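Bug #77: duplicate submission created two jobs. Keeping one. Sequence:
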Amino acid sequence: MKILCVSDATDTLIYSLQAPLRYKDVDFVISAGDLPLRYYDYIQTILKKDVYYVYGNHNLENFARSVENKGDIYSVTLPLCGGTLLENRVMNLKNHNLLIAGLGGSMLYNYGESQYTESQMRWRIARLIPRLMYNKKKYGRYLDILVTHAPPRGLGDGEDLCHKGFECFLSFMDKYKPKYLLHGHVHLDDMNANREILYNETKVVNVYKNHIIEDDFPGGRL
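Kept job's structure:
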């Protein structure tokens, strides 16, 4: 199986007339966030591949928000487009026999949208547990890929609060053993830098900008 992964920055290789040929053998696309919805629309149109994404911490246009008009406050929900939102979901991509889940957002640092404390992220994980248990019973495994925006704590994260990783992602990997945790958020100045860190049975991969995952997943295919 071949997966095109994107995050945080658009790529001229994808915004290219050669992109349909370059990525013709990609099965689908995963985004770890902080990209405009129009980029996902473009990818789906030009590559004719499904896109699955989570929110970053700068995807403010994707969220319902409060708007004040003459003293009245009401909620405006902007339409979702450009792919399938993975946020707070566990999905079975039946065409690929692949189990994926999404937990976007970053550590809380300025009370903006799509930011969470450690305890809030733990609560989000807890809400996924029933479906993970269902997967284990039916498919013999909890999950193949967890897509996040922020990295796990101590595995390619930063020391500043904004880019600090979540400790609960470590316990998630300990318990549910996804084959991959794909994240963005931490920009790579050197595109030749090592992107992968092995944590027990899980490959933690920073998919900043553009990265290809090729693997034979349980129940999947090359």
